[in-house]
Design brief:
The protein is an alpha+beta fold. It folds into three domains: 88 residues; 60 residues, Signal recognition particle alu RNA binding heterodimer, srp9/1; 90 residues, 2-Layer Sandwich (hypothetical protein PF0899 fold), CATH 3.30.2320. It has nine helices and twelve strands. A four-stranded mixed β-sheet has the order 2-1-8-7, with helices on one face. A four-stranded mixed β-sheet has the order 10-9-12-11, with helices on one face. It has a two-stranded antiparallel sheet with strand order 3-6. Strand 11 and strand 12 form a beta hairpin. The radius of gyration is 28 Å and the shape is flat.
């Protein structure tokens, strides 16, 4: 292509020189933040045990020191990457996680000596609000056996646990909280995506050309049928099917034998023939 456009080989072309004026620092910052959020979102999916092909309803994000106006143009990219319907932003992760404190007996022992077990008990009784203030720099003191000492960061390990139904992953102030609930509507869409994946694999295995049109035959239980009825047009467009035909178990038809495949834990029957 380069030779056709320029008349010279691309291997003889000089490297493009960097032009600092062409850089967009705001875009670079936004993309760096989105990459972190995408990584955390994938980790949240893995923790929830939900495949990427299964759509989910929403992702709640916290991006520290980020300008939401800078991030806004990249929200569709993040939603597509994580296969979520909606991306929301929160100012802080306070509402996403609850905090617990685990005492560090080694450092506490230097301050409290024999009273360390009482100090550890007092640390375990701190509320999430007190710990959140401590994380943000507020002083926090422990009194045990008549002795009172200010806590240092090394004296406790702050453990963050997801609050509510969201699955939360955190890194360096970034939070990605995923709603793992799969509604019937999302389930049907997820099954449709799995069906497309299976059909595309079948096209390749049967040696069809990329541009070949097909007739797609599908059978299975009520869940598979609901997915096909709801998303049949989208499935047809993705796999280049001129028709998507439903076949009941044992029903005669002009298709080839319909082998049974597992689609996201559900048995489905799929067959394809080249369209005339």
């Amino acid at each position: 292509m380069h030779r056709a456009l320029t008349g010279t080989s691309v291997h003889l072309a000089p490297f493009v020189r960097e032009r600092p004026a062409d850089r967009d620092p705001a875009l670079e910052r936004a993309m760096a933040g989105v990459r972190v959020l995408a990584k955390l979102g994938r980790a949240a999916r893995e923790a929830a045990g939900v495949k990427v092909r299964q759509p989910l309803s929403r992702l709640v994000c916290v991006a520290p020191d980020a300008d939401e106006a800078e991030l806004a143009p990249l929200v569709p990219l993040l939603a597509t990457e994580l296969n979520v319907k909606r991306v929301e932003f929160a100012r802080t992760g306070d509402a996403l996680v609850t905090l617990e404190a685990k005492p560090n007996f080694r450092t506490l022992g230097k301050k409290f000596g024999k009273q360390t077990p009482l100090a550890a008990q007092a640390i375990g009784a701190f509320t999430a609000e007190e710990l959140r203030a401590f994380v943000h720099g507020a002083p926090l003191a422990v009194t045990a056996g008549g002795e009172s000492h200010q806590l240092d960061a090394d004296d406790v390990t702050i453990v963050r646990r997801a609050s509510g139904a969201l699955v939360v992953e955190e890194e360096a102030g970034f939070f990605a909280a995923l709603d793992p609930v799969v509604t019937p509507e999302l389930r049907r869409e997820g099954l449709a995506r799995e069906l497309v994946s299976r059909v595309q694999r079948g096209r390749k295995e049967t040696g069809l050309a990329v541009s070949d049109r097909i007739v797609l035959y599908v059978g299975g239980d009520a869940d598979v049928r609901a997915a096909v009825e709801t998303h049949g047009a989208w499935i047809a467009g993705e796999v280049l099917a001129t028709r998507v035909v439903w076949r009941e178990d044992g029903e005669a038809g002009d298709q080839a034998t319909m082998p049974t495949v597992e689609v996201d834990g559900i048995a489905a029957r799929i067959a394809i023939t080249k369209a005339e």
